[in-house]
Amino acid sequence: xxxxxxxxxxxxxxxxxxxxxxxxxxxxxxxxxxxxxxxxxxxxxxxxxxxxxxxxxxxxxxxxxxxxxxxxxxxxxxxxxxxxxxxxxxxxxxxxxxxxxxxxxxxxxxxxxxxxxxxxxxxxxxxxxxxxxxxxxxxxxxxxxxxxxxxxxxxxxxxxxxxxxxxxxxxxxxxxxxxxxxxxxxxxxxxxxxxxxxxxxxxxxxxxxxxxxxxxxxxxxxxxxxxxxxxxxx
Length: 234
Ligand SMILES: C[S@@+](CC[C@H](N)C(=O)[O-])C[C@H]1O[C@@H](n2cnc3c(N)ncnc32)[C@H](O)[C@@H]1O
Hints:
This protein has ten helices and seven strands. The protein has helices spanning 3-8, 15-35, 43-55, 80-86, 99-111, 124-127, 148-155, 174-178, 181-186, 227-230, and strands at 68-72, 91-96, 117-121, 137-143, 159-169, 189-198, 205-213. The chain has a seven-stranded mixed β-sheet, sandwiched between helices. Helix 2 (15-35) runs antiparallel to helix 5 (99-111) and helix 3 crosses helix 4 (80-86). It is globular, with a radius of gyration of 17 Å. S-adenosylmethionine binds at residues 73-76, 78, 95-98, 101, 123-125, 143-145, 154.
């Protein structure tokens, strides 16, 4: 895809950035056979459902220069890698519990020459208990990882007071959000707003659920033993 694709959707990129997206696409194509990163393989769909969708997180209005961002359950690097290509001033930790995906991201970081991007192998509920990483990020992002109540317990502990957690969800977020109200409060968050949007070419509706961190998360969260998933907060 050339720059016209990005310009059409309001993202004007340099030739180097366009080349990085192209290189990322090729690496995805090459590694997908080995490690099953994504079911989406056709170029236009990859560019819209993965690259553009990741960039649309900038519409949240809370991403600023030089922030520290953790992308939880990043998989093949979404939304983290496209955001880094778009805004090189951002610093990323890309966390995933599958080692083979982290190995892939190590290659992406090297080949695309991305500074200040650290792929990290681990489970969110364990990493979030570690000093130096807990409550140390301006922003946490997560796409397609878990239902909202579980996701909140995975993600909010990483965010500094005053920062934001952005959950990238589909169009049917309302029920999930409704049953997550007490979890948001318990973990120190407050619903800031929800942004609904539609991908081009009828490729689907999406939403950004933006949670502001207003108080420190009590140290008992995230709970151990798989509880955020088996017994979600309610
Ligand atoms: C469906 S994939 C989504 C990947 C990527 N965010 C995307 O939108 O394409 C979910 C990813 O979350 C990771 N994951 C699931 N539970 C996790 C946890 N507790 N901690 C860290 N990563 C987790 C999985 O290994 C997987 O790579």
